[in-house]
Write a structure and sequence with these properties.
29% helix; 3 helices
Length: 181
């Protein structure tokens, strides 16, 4: 009797797994405004980091509709994180001024990653892995999926917001600045 149930249930399992693969495929090939999808962006990234000695800095932005936010700048030299700088802020709803509420600098190997606040000290390679494993794998029927690059193809946005959510729904990577060193 168990064999009959297994045979009846197997097509259903195959259908479910193929749906999730289609969802991942749809997100994987989602193209941003600059014309790059994830695969093309990753290839551009691999090429650009070789040309630039794998030395760069990026700023990870976290912002709320309430005006509270933070920026964490990560410095990478030859593929290794060598600095992390954090700044928390509040933006006035009245006049748009930015008030700094907290800061820190981590510049030694022992210090890097020692503060809880801010984005983790990850390389862009780590962010690409996180993008494909955590954010582009969500169900596009339940979530708006975002992927964007700068003009050279480097990823600057990868994440999602669930449909129907009203405030602070975005989950993912948001890079406000990227420069080669």
């Amino acid at each position: 009797m168990e064999k009959i149930y297994t045979l009846l249930f197997l097509p259903f399992l195959l259908f479910i797994s193929s749906c999730s693969l289609d969802s991942v495929r749809e997100n994987f090939f989602k193209e941003g405004e600059n014309g790059y999808n994830f695969r093309e962006s990753k290839a551009a990234w691999d090429d650009l980091k070789k040309k630039n000695g794998n030395s760069y800095e990026y700023t990870f932005l976290e912002e709320s509709w309430t005006g509270v936010g933070s920026e964490t700048t990560i410095i990478i030299e030859r593929g290794k994180v060598v600095g992390r700088y954090y700044e928390a802020f509040i933006i006035s709803a009245e006049n748009g001024t930015k008030t700094i509420t907290d800061t820190y600098e981590e510049t030694s190997r022992k210090e890097i990653g020692s503060h809880a606040a801010g984005a983790p000290p990850l390389s862009m390679d780590d962010l690409y892995k996180t993008c494909i494993s955590q954010y582009l794998t969500v169900d596009p029927d339940a979530n708006e999926v975002y992927f964007e690059t700068n003009e050279t193809g480097v990823m600057i946005l990868c994440g999602f917001s669930s449909y129907g959510c009203n405030d602070d729904c975005y989950v993912g990577i948001r890079i406000s600045k990227f420069t080669w060193r």
